[in-house]
Amino acid sequence: MKNTPFTHKHLELGAKMAEFAGYHMPISYSGINDEHLAVRNNAGIFDVSHMGEFILKGAGALDLIQRVTSNDASRLTNGQAQYSCLPNESGGIVDDLLVYCIREKEVYMLVVNAANIEKDWKWISGFNTGGVSMEDISSKTCLLAIQGPNATRMLQPLTSMDLMNLKYYSFVKGPFAGVDNVLISATGYTGAGGVEIYFEDKNDAANKIWDAIFAAGKPLGLKPAGLAARDTLRLEKGYCLYGNDINDTTSPLEAGLGWITRFTKAFVGREAIEQKKKKGIQRRLVGFEMVDKGIPRHGYEIRDFSGMQIGEVTSGTQSPSLNKAIGLGYVREPFNNPDAKIYIRIRDKLLQARVVKLPFIS
Predict the structure, then answer these.
(1) Beta-strand runs (E) in the chain
(2) Structure pTM?
């Protein structure tokens, strides 16, 4: 099991640790609800250094990205990022990812899910026929997500870069907390605002940056947060988790990701996705909240009033912000319409739920 450069910090803080994607990762510190609400209302810091990062360079870098991703990366200019996915030939999803434009048409960074690093590398490499230089920098890259409405205010004293006015899905690169060449992007997986910070783990940079962030943020209420709170935060915003809500067999259109699927360009899987669109999407990912008391979990059956199975829960939790149980799941028509009554099979009981519009919180 691998450690991140911050594992000793997590242990010092008394984090509950567990294996995730082959890494020794913090699951929680002060408790899921406490960490969740700290991020939603103020600020929290996540170690997400287990994520994967690839650098693509060369004259054909953009063409390769356009070929393997569903979104239109040609729209990106220097300092912009984009959410996208890697479709397969059958129209499923190899992974979802972020595309960073470091230097337009020449240098890009792809950020992929930790469990899919090797899979994604092989997939993208298989389409690299134009001599694009590819480098996997995952093992030497630190990634901290400082999320929450007050995150940038806490971090601004640590850099001359303007974080307070950083536009959503844009990034800057420069000195931060005495460390050079730090990339800071207005992205994240919580929907609470804040930034993500990428830097190379050399010359004690990990300790310097972690300690500086806590020195600046702790007096203002910054809290460390684990992967459990990260999951409840993303679920409240209706964000997909790879392996739960999307996978190799789910279409971007089924998952509500039509907005990152651009049919104005050629890409792997385009024809298959278009065919599914023409035939009509048979099932869709929806959000629902429980009416009866019970917490939905991944894999639970979704049924109609007669008891017939109409889908399956992909994610579920007790929402700390809403104080009610919520979930995501795929259902067929007409049960994907808002206010549709559905039933979740929990411990051999059918408990009523109601389909709602996403996100669960604005």
Answers:
(1) 16-20, 23-28, 44-47, 52-57, 81-87, 93-103, 107-112, 133-136, 141-147, 171-176, 179-185, 194-200, 223-224, 283-290, 301-303, 309-319, 324-332, 341-346, 349-356
(2) 0.97
